[in-house]
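Note to self: user wants both folds in one dump. Writing first protein now.
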Amino acid sequence: MTDAVIHARKRTPCAATWVQDAHCFVGANADVLSQFPCYCGCGPMGHGSNYACFWQREGVLDTHALGCGICVDIAQDVMRGMKQGHLPEIPSAVDDDKHFTAHQPPIAKC
């Protein structure tokens, strides 16, 4: 288990399992998720990629994705694609709304 995964589990104890999984996956696959833009409208927050929705930099958690289902959906879909042995084409994945799975907002409850 990488330091990013351990850190994500410790920092998101109240988040739903699928949200924790997304944080861990993004932390362990920064090189991949840094290539995927986010389309939730978080650009003005300084988020230039889906990675930035989860991590400000390696080891420093960004809490935005804890409350944004779109960010988590993008990470989950990339994770699912990697498990199946492929990645969606980056530009078309974001442009094609039907590609991403829709979850309820990932609200942490403690």
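First done. Writing the second protein, which came from a different request thread.
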Amino acid sequence: MNNLLSTSRSSTHSVASRVWQRAGACTAAVVAILASVPATAAAQGVRFTLSPSAEYTWWDKDLGITNGELLGGRVGADFGSLLSVSGYFHTTR
């Protein structure tokens, strides 16, 4: 029984480690992209948003969907205080 529990814990740790590695890579990409955006964009009343996301989802067994990590994020543009456009994307292997 202990062997079964240690195998389960190590595979969970492995999945969590991969999720954090990918989240770090996504964060680095976001920082690089945001660093290249001109500073004058905010002064003109248009703001851009780019947010990375890393999640792990445990589904109910009755649904027949396998548990897994979801990686993705949000991209958006705010045109003043009353209008914004956003898109969300998440994917799994």
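Dump finished. Worth passing along: Residues 58 and 67 are 5 Å apart (CA to CA).
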